[in-house]
Structures are given as C-alpha cells and as structure tokens.
Amino acid sequence: MSFAPSRSSADPLDDALTAAVGAVSSRVAAIAASNPVVIIDGRSGAGKSSLARRLVAAWPGRSRVQLVALDDVYPGWGGLADGADYARDTILLPHAKGTIGVWRRWNWEVGERAEAHAVDPSLPLVVEGAGILTPASATLADVRVWVDAPDASRKDRALRRDGETYRPHWDLWAAQEDAHLSEHEPQALASVVVFLP
Fold first, then answer.
1. N or C: which end of the chain has fewer CB within 10 A?
2. DSSP characters for 64-91?
3. 176-186 burial string, b = 16+ CB within 10 Å, else e?
4. Which SUPFAM superfamilies match (predicted)?
C-alpha cells in the first residue's frame, strides 16, 4: 500500500500525516489483535516521529499503546545499526515471544546506557526509528511502515528539530542510513509506504 500527500491543502504535511495515520490505523484495525506491533522506519527528518505520535494518539482501540523511539536507544552518533539490533533483541523479540522486554535508554551526554524501561507483551507496541525495518525485524511486526520525503525537506526538518547538535553529525548519520537502505531494502519490506512533503 502506498500513497502520496494531497497537493491542494494549505498545510500539505499535516494532510499527509493525517492520511498516513488513517492508512496505518486501518491496517492495525484489520489485524484484530489486542497487542499488534507497528514499526516505522525512514531516513532522518522524514516524519517518523510525527507519524508515530499521531498514530498512538489516534490508536484504533482502547488499549494503552507503548511507543519506543530509537533516538532513546541508539548508542551514539555511530550507532544506527547497533541501536536497531538492540531494539530488535530487547523490545521486539520479547514482545513476539509474549515475555516482558527490558531496554535501557542511551544517555547521550555521558555515552552509556541509563535507566531501564519495560515493554509489556500484552499491549500494542509502536517502535520508530531509522534502521528498524530489516528482514529480521519485519517478521516481528504486524504493520511495517516506510516513511519517505524529499532530501531538502528532511534535512530542514531534522536540523530545525535538533539544531546545531545534529549538524556536525548529519553526514555520518546519512552514510549509516545509506548502508541500511543498501543492505536491507526497508521500503520493499514495508506493508505501508508513506510519502510526506
């Protein structure tokens, strides 16, 4: 399933996110499970976090939804692949097995893992972040989303969000994203492809 944003709105990004939430919510509702798993991947600034937050707010059902952002998991600026593997092993795999997953937040200031967080396998789960959609993680998710956007829009959004903290690391992070796309072809693994302006 793939769709592009409307071109007639005064706020095309808002409209595209609304449409994307509707598309993903429909997939979630069709699963008819009490604890579905959604993973959302895409390059930096594509709109993954915005989509994930809106999806959780509009979740089709009464359950409390657990949201994990890989920005809290990556072990530093060079850790895209390691963070995605860590999330698969400590969050997605336990959830799929029906056991409690425990992950530890990465403290970017001190460069080490910090407090632990539990993931309840009885509740729905949304995991978002660059690198999360791989062949190994795809089998652990009910809905797999790839978010795409033009390079200029992505960079503008990412640097407005994270400012000068991110700017020196943009090229390093982009190279890791390139490696992920080349090795795993996440868009081909997605059940929903979202294009944001």
1. N
2. --EEEEGGGT--STT-HHHHHHHHIIII
3. bbeebbeebeb
4. P-loop containing nucleoside triphosphate hydrolases
Tokens 């937040």 correspond to 105
- Rounded Cα–Cα distance for residues 142 and 101 (Å): 17
Q: For residue 145, give the CATH number of its domain.
A: 3.40.50.300
Counting the structural domains of the chain, the total is 1
Say how far apart CA 160 and CA 157 lie, in whole Å: 5
Report the alpha-carbon distance of residue 22 to residue 139 in Å, rounded. Answer: 23
pTM assigned to the model: 0.93
Cβ-proximal residues to 105 (8 Å cutoff; 6+ apart), any chain = 72, 73, 113, 114, 115, 117
pLDDT digits (tens, 9 = 90+) for 58-101: 999 888 999 999 999 999 999 999 999 999 999 999 999 999 99
Domain that holds residue 70: 2-195
119 phi and psi, to 5 degrees? -120, 120
pLDDT tier for residue 126 given thresholds of 50, 70 and 90: very high
Pair 51, 24: CB distance under 8 Å: yes
